[in-house]
Write a structure and sequence with these properties.
The structure holds two protein chains of two kinds. By secondary structure, chain A is α/β, with parallel strands linked by helices. Chain A has seven helices and twelve strands. Chain A has a six-stranded parallel β-sheet with strand order 1-12-7-4-2-3, sandwiched between helices. A four-stranded mixed β-sheet of chain A has the order 8-5-6-9. In chain A, helix 5 links the parallel strand 2 and strand 3. In chain B, a hairpin with a 5-residue loop joins strand 11 and strand 12. Classes of the chains: A alpha/beta, B alpha/beta.
Chain lengths: 226, 471
């Protein structure tokens, strides 16, 4: 994956720079990972994580809907209708709660409600869709965040391009604290992982908060009870 | 825009002559101060986290070459290309070369102060690459050919009328002052650009040495678009942005957004591990990381190394009474505020920026809020000592006289009587002028006129009266 003849120079530029640096022993120690985690952790593994997650997600600006295995497809059909969206992307990913069987149920419910599920997903479709429904890898109670590991099945664009993002989250996917996410993912299995905390926003103009800049302006979390 | 050749004093005067600007900066910074306080109060142990963050950064800086070597190796193992730029010119050259090599015509940028530091946009434009800033504030700065005045919220100095005029002129859209509508217009315009761009340039908030991970913290989604849409992604990273392990990220992520805006996290925290995976249909096919030195390594083993801990949260700017009353442009630097008063001369040369370390009352508000515990006032004093050579002869002489008087009582008493005689007020009890340039010095200081009789004289009299009464 080289771009030009001069590229070959670069590794040796860095090597030369590194060789040039004085070799001095540092006196400040690096905190041991276990010790660090004890200090950093804000939320312990405990009961009531779902309530904590719901509160934090709402505080971050998400709309949270609790549902059971029977009624969650209907909940999403309602969300899509309320968003006046005609074209919906459904991202099927066995590594999330939106696996093959749940995805099939959802697509059937959407089609029955007259909503169009996009299947051939080119760039045009991502920009045309009004809503994208995806699963998540994890959810974080501390901050109300959704962890989306991007891969073949979960395209980077699905939680970014369409203006409404619906995340199907299983209650069993909630971890207490951000450090639980970071401790788990080494070495990295995915080329890209996004920690999403609420809808996109800016306050650049006179400090007035505006939602929906380039990422989705509305984020719905459909929380599945087991 | 204030000219670079004007002195700090002139730039401050120009800022103070714009009450609308000062009102806007005051409002915005006070709001951020409150938001930060509320955000940090949500943590059960904020000071422990800050101490931990300071320790991790200090350790990393003390062992930087080792971690940089580890970082580069991990990046290459994931298929990214790594380049080291010794200075700004080398960084521009590397980035322009990559852009040419991939035939880029349209580049998108997410907010990167490091790219402003190296004046990247001009170099790309000269190479025929149209470069569009996509962060809303930076986009406005770009179309106004202005400069950012805050490292987190670039157009803190602009009001909605100015933004409305700029957007109407640039996009030809109907005039509107509504921030939501203005944002929608910018979104539509930039969305088209995101669809067709071929090069994305971003900064890096944190680089993780053990895994070669790039961490980007953003709110709008333009950062994600920038690192996802184009075929080629260039990440420009100051060498001091490194941290050792992924678990260390948890400390900094919990502090960064809270210190900046009070949020628990920025809306999007993106962790990038190489270019797109084999089974992905989106994401860059080429990832280049350009490591920038530009004066940083020279500080590593000296007394100023701790300034390299900075995570660019902006909390010191928001807390600083000087920044709050003069705004960012008065610093005439990419990095304004307390941290700017340090890094600008330290990276750019003390001879070029001798006045900035003096743009401070040393109140210490910045040190209290710094998430990585940089002792900014202490370092400012040290820099002032180092820049003594640039002080005016008159000031140096005056300070010597003062020091002498403070060490000799008779001179001190003489000085008191002299001051009474030479200071002049306008009848309101506050000294406004005196001999030899005192008027200039007094213009920015509130010095009450000395009383007719000094405390020492009164004390001596009443004591002798008592003694007289008793004997």
């Amino acid at each position: 994956m080289t771009t030009g003849a001069s590229h070959g120079r670069d590794p040796s530029v860095l090597a030369a720079w590194l060789a040039d640096q004085p070799a001095k022993a540092g006196k400040t120690a690096l905190p041991e990972a276990g010790v660090l985690e004890q200090v950093v952790r804000q939320v312990a593994p405990t009961v009531g994580l779902e309530d904590r997650f719901i509160r934090a997600a709402r505080a971050a600006g998400c709309e949270v809907h609790e549902a059971g295995e029977r009624d969650w497809p209907a909940a999403i059909v309602r969300i899509v209708a309320a968003a006046s969206a005609r074209e919906v992307i459904v991202a099927t990913d066995a590594a999330t709660a939106l696996d093959g069987s749940r995805s099939a149920l959802l697509c059937a419910a959407l089609q029955q409600a007259g909503q169009h599920v996009l299947t051939c997903l080119s760039d045009t479709e991502y920009f045309a869709a009004g809503v994208a429904v995806t699963g998540v890898t994890l959810a974080v109670a501390e901050t109300g965040s959704l962890i989306v590991a991007c891969s073949g099945p979960t395209d980077r664009r699905s939680s970014l391009v369409p203006p409404v993002h619906v995340a199907v989250v299983g209650m069993w996917q909630i971890v207490p604290d951000l450090c639980d996410v970071l401790a788990r993912s080494t070495p990295a299995e995915n080329a890209s992982l996004v920690i999403i905390t609420g809808p996109s926003k800016t306050a650049d103009i006179e400090g007035v908060l505006v939602r929906g800049v380039h990422g989705p302006g509305t984020v719905h979390v459909v929380l599945l009870r087991r | 825009m204030t000219p670079e050749t004007a002195s700090l004093r002139e730039r401050v005067r120009a800022a103070q002559a714009d009450p609308r600007l000062i009102a806007a900066v005051r409002l915005a910074t006070w709001r951020k101060v409150e938001q930060r306080a509320a955000g940090m109060a949500e943590l059960r142990n904020p000071d422990e986290l800050r101490a931990l963050a300071a320790q991790i950064k200090q350790h990393t800086l003390e062992n930087l070459p080792r971690y940089l070597g580890q970082f580069a190796a991990a990046l290459r193992a994931r298929g990214a290309q790594v380049h080291l730029a010794a200075d700004a010119a080398a960084a521009r050259e590397i980035i322009v070369r990559i852009a040419r090599g991939c035939g880029a015509r349209l580049a998108v940028k997410s907010k990167s102060m490091t790219s402003e530091e190296i004046h990247l946009n001009e170099a790309l434009a000269a190479a025929g690459v149209r470069t569009v800033e996509t962060d809303l504030g930076e986009f406005i700065v770009q179309i106004e050919q202005d400069r950012p005045s805050h490292i987190v919220t670039p157009i803190i100095h602009k009001d909605r009328r100015q933004v409305a005029r700029a957007m109407q002129r640039e996009l030809g859209c109907p005039y509107t002052e509504d921030p939501a509508e203005l944002t929608r217009l910018a979104r539509a315009h930039l969305r088209e650009i995101f669809r067709t761009c071929d090069l994305g340039i971003s900064g890096v908030n944190f680089g993780v040495a053990e895994s070669g991970t790039l961490c980007l913290c953003t709110n709008e989604g333009n950062g994600r678009m920038t690192v996802t849409r184009p075929r080629v992604h260039i990440a420009l990273m100051g060498i001091e942005k490194l941290i050792p392990r992924r678990i260390d990220l948890s400390v900094f992520l919990k502090l960064l957004a809270r210190s900046s805006t009070g949020q628990p996290l920025t809306v999007y925290t993106t962790l990038i591990d190489g270019p797109r995976a084999a089974d992905e249909a989106a994401g860059p096919q080429e990832l280049h990381v350009v490591l920038l030195d530009a004066g940083r390594s020279a500080l590593l083993h000296g007394p100023y190394a701790s300034v390299l801990r900075c995570i660019r949260c902006g909390a010191c700017l928001n807390a600083c009474p000087v920044y709050r009353n003069i705004g960012g442009h008065a610093y005439a630097s990419v990095y304004p505020g307390p941290i700017g008063a340090l890094v600008t001369p330290l990276l750019g040369g003390l001879a070029q920026h001798p006045e900035l370390p003096r743009a401070s009352s040393l109140c210490g508000a910045c040190a209290e809020v710094c998430p990585v515990k940089i002792d900014i006032p202490e370092l400012l004093v040290r820099l002032r000592r180092d820049s003594r050579g640039s002080q005016s002869v008159l000031k140096r002489a005056a300070l010597r006289v003062w020091a002498l008087a403070m060490r000799h009582e008779s001179l001190y008493r003489l000085g008191q009587r002299t001051l009474r005689a030479v200071l002049v007020d306008e009848g309101d009890g506050w000294a406004t002028s005196g001999p030899a340039g005192a008027a200039g010095w007094l213009a920015a200081r509130d010095l009450p006129m000395p009383p007719a009789r000094s405390f020492r004289e009164l004390w001596a009299e009443s004591l002798s009266a008592e003694r007289g009464g008793r004997t």
